[in-house]
Amino acid sequence: MSSTPPGGRSRRLALVLLCAGMMMIILDGTIVTVALPAVQSDLGLSASGLAWVVNAYLIAFGGLLLLAGRLGDLVGRKRVFLAGLALFTLASLLCGLATTPAMLIAARFAQGVGGALASAVSLGMIVLLFPEPRERMRAIGAYSFVGAAGASLGLVAGGVLTDALGWHWIFFVNVPIGVLAGTLAARVLVADRGIGLGRGADVLGALLVTGGLMIGVYAIVETERHGWTSARTLGTGALSLALLAAFVLRQSRAAQPLLPLRVFRSRNVSGANLVQALVVAGMFGFQFVMALYLQRVLGYEAARTGWAMFPIAAVIGVLTLFVTARLIARFGARAVLAAGLLLIAAGLTLLTQVPEDARYVPDLLVPMMLAAAGAGLALPSMAGLGMSGATEQDSGVVSGLFNTTQQIGAALGSATLLTLAAGRADGLRAQGESAAAALTGGYHLAFGIGAGLAALALIVALAVLRTEPAAPTLQPQPEPEPRRVGA
C-alpha cells in the first residue's frame, strides 16, 4: 500500500471489499461439496472425474499462493488482487456455463488461479491498512471470520442453491458479487507500485516452488484413490519434496529470492505457520468428516446438513468479529491462541464418543460449539502472530506463505482424516459391524486424530511463539525524496 494509510472510512470500506472478495473465494472451496451428486448426474462424470472438480481448484489454489504473494510485493498488491478477482469471476461464469466435464474442470483450475492471486495479497494489504495494533487485530478478526466461517457457510449455500435453483447457480452467484467488488475495489484500494520485478524476479525459484506445491497437493488429494503407500503417491510425494528442497537451496543463494529465508528468523512467522498447518488440518478435516457423518450415518439431506453446521460459522463469526481482538489486547495473542487450541482439542475429543444414533442436541451441537469457539479464538491470534514479523517489502510474500500453509494444511487434513476413517470403517465392517456402526467408528478415529493435531499445535505454540510487541513491527517505509534536476 502507500506509505500513508487512508482515512478511517476509506480503510473500513477497503476492509469490507477485501473480505467480500475473500468470502467469495473461500465459499467456493466448500460450496461445491454438497452439489457434487447433482453435478455428476447432469454431466455424466465418472468417480475420478468428479474428484477432479474439487482437486483442480485445490491444486491451482495451493500451488500458486506463494508465487502470487511475491508478485504482489513486486508489481503492486492492488494490481494482483484485482487481476485475481477478475479471473475468478470470469472462471465462475464459465463453470456455470459448463456443458462437459473437461470444460468444468478447466474452469475450476482457472478459478483456483484467480483465487490464489486475490487471496495471497489480501492479508498483507489489511496489515498495512491498519498499522495500529488494536485496529489491526479487529481487522484480522474480520479476515479470519471470512476464512473460517466461509467454509461452513459454503456448505449451507451449496445445499440451498442446489436444491432451489440447480448446481449451475453455485457458480453464477459469484458473478455479480465479483463484478461489484472489483469495481468498488478499483476505486477504493490505494494503488501501490511494488518494489519492481528487478528486485525479485526469481524465475527459477518460482518454477520450483510452484511445481513442488502443485505436485504435493496433487499427491495429497489423490491418496483417497491410490492410498498413502502406493508407488504413485510415494513417487509424486518424493518429486514434490525434491523440488521444494531445490527451491530452499535456490533461495539461500539467489541475489533476489522469491521467498527471502530471513522471514523465518522470526519465531512468530515460523511458529505461527507450523501451528496453523496443524490446527487447520484438524479443523478442515473435522468439517468434512462431520458433513459425511450427518449424511451417511444420520441420513441428513444436503440442505439440512448445511444448516446443521451453520452454528460453527455463527460462533466463529461472533468471536472473531467482536470478542477475540479485545481478549488479545488484554491477555496477548499467545495466551488467547492457547485457550483456543484447548477448546478445539476438547470439542474434537468429545466427538470421538458420539453414538451412531446421535441426537443433534446435545450429542453434536455442544462439541461443535466448543471446536468453533476454539477456532474463533485461535485463527485471528495465529494470523496476528504470523504477520507480526513482516516488513512492508515482504508483507505480500509473508501473507502468501501464511495462506499457503493454510491450504496445504486443509488439503492434508481432509485427505488424511477421510482416508484413515474409510480404512477404519472397512476394517470394522469386515469384523461384522453394521454399516452405520462401522462408519461411526471410522469417524471416531478421524475426530481423535484432529484432537491430537490440536494438542500438538498447542505444544508448538507454547514452545515457539512469543507475544507480539505492543508497538507494531510492520511500519510503512518512507518514500525516497525526489532528486532535483541540477542539484
TrEMBL record:
Molecular function GO terms recorded: transmembrane transporter activity
Report how it sits in the membrane.
Multi-pass membrane protein
Tell where it localizes: Cell membrane
What would be one Pfam family of this protein? MFS_1
Where does the Major facilitator superfamily (MFS) profile domain lie?
14-469
Keywords of this entry: Cell membrane, Membrane, Transmembrane, Transmembrane helix, Transport
Which top-level group of life is the source organism from?
Bacteria
Q: What are the TM regions of this chain, as residue ranges?
A: 12-38, 50-68, 80-103, 109-130, 142-161, 167-190, 202-221, 233-250, 271-294, 306-328, 335-352, 364-387, 408-425, 445-465
Gene Ontology CC terms: plasma membrane
Please state what the protein is called.
Drug resistance transporter, EmrB/QacA subfamily
Which organism does this record belong to?
Thermomonospora echinospora
At the highest ranks, the source species' classification is: Bacteria, Bacillati, Actinomycetota, Actinomycetes, Streptosporangiales
